[in-house]
UniProtKB/TrEMBL annotation, chain B:
Catalysed reactions, as listed in the record: a quinone + NADH + 5 H(+)(in) = a quinol + NAD(+) + 4 H(+)(out)
Gene (name only): nuoN
UniProt-listed Enzyme Commission number(s): 7.1.1.-
Top-tier EC class: translocase
Entry keywords, A to Z: Cell membrane, Membrane, NAD, Oxidoreductase, Quinone, Translocase, Transmembrane, Transmembrane helix, Transport, Ubiquinone
Name of the molecule in the record: NADH-quinone oxidoreductase subunit N
Organism: Sphingomonas desiccabilis
Amino acid sequence: MEFPILSVMLAVPAIAAIACLFVKAEAARWIALFATLVDFALGILLWASFDVGGAQWQFVEGPINVGGFNWALGIDGISLLLIMLSVFLMPICIGASWKSVTDRVPEYMAAFCLTEVLMIGTFAAQDLLLFYIFFEGGLIPMYLIIGIWGGANRIYASYKFFLYTLLGSVLMLIAMIYIRSTAGTTDIPTLMAYDFPPQVQTWLWLAFFASFAVKMPMWPVHTWLPDAHVQAPTAGSVILAGVLLKLGGYGFLRFSLPMFPDASGDLAWLIFLLSAVAVVYTSLVALVQSDMKKLIAYSSVAHMAIVTIGLFAFNRQGIEGAMIMMLSHGLVSGALFLCVGVIYDRLHTREIARYGGLAENMPRYAVFFLFFTMASIGLPGTSGFVAEFLSLAGLYQVSTWAALICTTSIILGAAYMLYLYRRVAYGPLDKEDVRAMPDLSVREIALLAPVAAVALWMGVYPESFMAPMRNDVTTLLARIERATPASDSRPTPGNPEAAAAAAAEHGGEAAHGAPAHSEAH
Amino acid sequence: MSYASQLATTLPELVLAAGAIVLMLVAAWGGQRSTRAVSIASVFVLVGAGIALIGPASSGATAFGGMYRADAFAAYAKVLIYAASAIAIMVAPRFFAQTAGDNLKPEYPILILLSCTGMGMMVSAGDMLLLYVGLELQSLAAYVLASFMRRDTRSAEAGLKYFVLGALASGILLYGISLVYGFSGTTLFVDIAQAYAGDLGGERSLGLLFGLVFVFAGIAFKMSAVPFHMWTPDVYEGAPTPVTAFFASAPKVAAIGLGMRVAIEAMGPATADWRQIVIFASLASIVLGAVAAIGQTNIKRLLAYSSINNVGFALVGLAAGTPEGVASVLFYMAIYIVMTLGSFLVVLQMRDVAGRPIETIAGFSGLSRSHPGLAAALAIMMFSLAGIPPLLGFNAKLEVFNAAVQADLFVLAVVAVIGSVPGAYYYLRIVKTLYFDAPAEGVAVRTDRFEGGLLAATAVFISPVGWFLLAPLGAWTMTAARSLF
């Protein structure tokens, strides 16, 4: 039997979580850091031994019947990248809480280790109900993290977070039970090729949509997110923005699109509509925020809208762009929350107006903050650019109108992020307590630098991140091709020159994924 | 079948009844001093009855002309009943020793044994009259148990309320039985089923239909399903906590077991008729159990509404009316009684500085700081009762929803699952009190090793460790359920 690396990756933080509860604060910190670093090392091993271009599902374990559901794990390229994101951010979260959390440290570290187990499990589950268990189980530690270590209004935020997401998910559970009784299996790879009748697809799609739209979050069910972010401790926000928001996108990619392609095609307009509203509306809301975390939270909603339009563009650029957007947003907005945490630890306020002129007394901080601001805006050379460009290019092929509206996100994003940066880092350094703030410590640099490096890497050479998922996107495209919504940007037949150019461009798209050339048409 | 072999099938009830009578004599002569010995002996009697289930008592045999059924279904329900009763006996001495006023008397374990005899007959009944006798035996013992703390007015009130409303319910049930008997000419389940089956062919008999409605109303009272739930919060609040723990576990299993046997064996051909009643009771219980619990400040009242809510979910499985549905209900009950006993075990540990039991939810504030283990155990129970994975309460709900979906009852499943969200709110409120609030003053928790160990065992069972037991439990409930069809 092969080395069950995925189960081990789940077991390490699980054991650490239990161990944390029985030791004192300092020991708990080290146990949590050690466990998350071990998981990160295992993650690198996982990526290194992942056979790019090999079998679709690798490191498969199980299925073992547990009673009602199966223990079945396995990953494809998409899962691999999201697992990497989780294990990469986790040690950073532990490090970010090293000094700022002093109350009930053992429980805190246990909650984070538990969150890591549930996140990895969600991305690695190959059984429908096992997925649900991990997906929904994540509510418990997050509820406790927000409620115990959160800000002043934490109790309201924790209830809202829990009940909102629970209400979305329970409908998905009924849909999953229906799938199990109709299709007779809960094996995700099998179901990804199972054809439900079109009218059934619509209902199932809507049930899954209820869950993923809340998790994502999409406008208008995004209102739990700003509350949760503002009240959560720094590391909680990082993990919430970095990984938990990706569960919605992952769900669309893993369930909605391949399992219900016809319904996805029919209802793509709904996604476009909600996403376009979200981009404009939440960007404008972000512009007027006076609380830094709330601003970044609203920017997350806008970025997640780019993910959804990319996914439902039904073409390679869109889907790959959406995936890169998820990874990029996970890194960048996680890092932005860290940046907020750094100054929050010093001044204990998130009020933007309380800061100003930080570039003078905290130059190193200002550099990092600027880098992540630019990455969030999508400056070429950073991961954000690759993500936005690909998603919007994909969207343009389906709906020029939606693309027109959604592209405003680049301008509006620049507006609110630069405005934030100007108010925090530039301007006169006229406040005594702000002047007294020391620059980044070595620990803080050690937290921010790796994220910056990866964001730069993803911006300069995205191929490293696109290669593992290329075949999976090809498989997905082959599956959903028949349901592609009608495009309004195809050149008319009356213009042969443009049609030829379009054909050539489409060849280019396939060449972009060389092995996929034949499938693209 | 010889008389001896017929008696052999009822061996568990014989053990319990004989044990109860012998212990009653011991108590009569031994008096107060014999309390401890009688309690210990009672637990052994329950263990003995459990052992007696192996053999003829679970062979699937039918005794006394079809009146008594010794099938796998009855055996499964009895295992749960005996286990819950044994725990109710074992946790009582400490509770009474710490509570000023009333001492534990040797009658307490004896009454539980008698109640168990009645419950065993309820789940084994193949005849309406045996059902009624078993139910009354169980109830009469329970009325006395509810008012066991004679100097406590709330306890006396609980006993009286329980008795008056219980008598009313018995009347309703008996009226239903008399209608069924009058229009079918028999009290045997198998023959009643034939009457209902024949009824479907020709003219519909209104009498049989009315009988069905009244029988279900009477049973709904015993399982405390809405709209016959009103006694539950008062009785649960007033009764001594070990007794409440008992009421919330063993008699629930017995009542639901009885309800399923009547529904499937006696009235199986009329499934379409009783399904409406069950669906209504189920959804009403889920909604009322969830909404009414939100405003509660007493933990025992809250757990009473929680039990109403849980009965609602269990009935979702019964509404399916299939072997899978029955199995899912049995599965649900096993996990439910562990969760509810675990919750009451935590409540039992809560004392203030003067030694009085703490029953207000506010008294649990910040328990996670002073007693992290106790708080964690209660939090696990609450998340599990709310049906959040990866705890076993989720698997229980999954099974009943699965049964409902397989029986094409989509609307029921969707409404029930949405109804679980307001329910989650009040369970979360307990977790919030435990973890987010500042510690309460004057809490002096007293735990002993035995109850602590029991609590830890229930918490571990509910945690993902319990996944290892899901497959065997599922297989066992399926075997039990098939014996009804």
